[in-house]
Write a structure and sequence with these properties.
Helix content: 10-25%
Number of helices: 6
CATH architecture of the largest domain: Alpha-Beta Complex
Radius of gyration: 21 Å
CATH superfamily of the largest domain: Spore Coat Polysaccharide Biosynthesis Protein SpsA, Chain A
Distance between the termini: 20 Å
CATH topology of the largest domain: Spore Coat Polysaccharide Biosynthesis Protein SpsA, Chain A
Length: about 350
Amino acid sequence: MRKDRGGVSRQRTNPILSWAVNDAATGDAPATGPAPVGFCLAAGAGTRLRPLTGQVPKPLLAPAGRPLVDLACEALDRAGTREIVVNTHHGASQLAAHLDGRPGLHVLHEPELLGTGGALGNAYHLGLLGGGTVLVTSADVLVHPADLASVAAQLDRGGEVAIGLVPARPGLLAVRLDGDATIPDPAGPWAPAGVHALRAGVLEPVPPRPASLVDALLAPLWRRGEVTGVVLEHPWADAGTPHRFLAAAAGLLAGRWPYRLPPGQLRRTGPGGAPVFLAEGAAAHPTALLAGPVVLDKGSRVGAHAVVTRTVLAPGASIGDGAHVSGSILGPGATIPPEARVTAALIPGPTERSG
């Protein structure tokens, strides 16, 4: 890997990344026309998952044994992109080391956090996005590759920008559809899903300085009725809060998205058959009670007579004998002492800044 101007780490270009090649049977997009360039937003601080994100950047947190950034890049790859750009800021060194050596992937470091709009403008002006379609997702969004491909295909029917839509919920910008056009409307039934497709040329006036995508690009186009929308047909999740992160873990274990789990053992427990996943190298004492969804990542341990429900243990985390842990996320190397009672907690491991 070598670095060019602008903090770009370039990997050897290869139109097929290190994940599975496209296959309609697994929900991948068929190859039609020039392939888009993928862009994965991965620079944010992950403040809603602190203090975990003081140890590990949010894109490297793994709800079910695989980091969020790997799932996002796989989604872009299987949606038909030819190259992928990942921007970094918080935890940049850890992300760069994790992504190093992947064919067709470019790591773009931002010394100053540029926001969603400034990040795309920066990549465009550095020549990383080409002149065709750019397909954008976020590292903390779980989306089906077929939905990403549908958003990209919307541009074939005209327009400069298309956004994926999910049912509206509190805290998200609400929109309505007027034909294919999206119109901001506080009473609208839809909300942007954090996935977009755009013609690279629309980024020409967007400078490489801090700005949101809405302010830098979408708002002016909305006023002209030039943003089209595509309602996503498959499951979608935002893993950016503790509750949603645990829900994403449950969805991955249940197979809601076509992403493989790492090597390990998937069990069904309890009357409802809730899933429990033990990655290779993880262990639970035979007397421990695991009530899923529960994830034990590699090297994690659960002691005798411990009770663990709806919890994710990162690599090397441990829960002591007789402890009760529910609704929690344990960071790498985190330790719960014997007989402790822990509920709805984020427990980091030994202090190591995410840089």
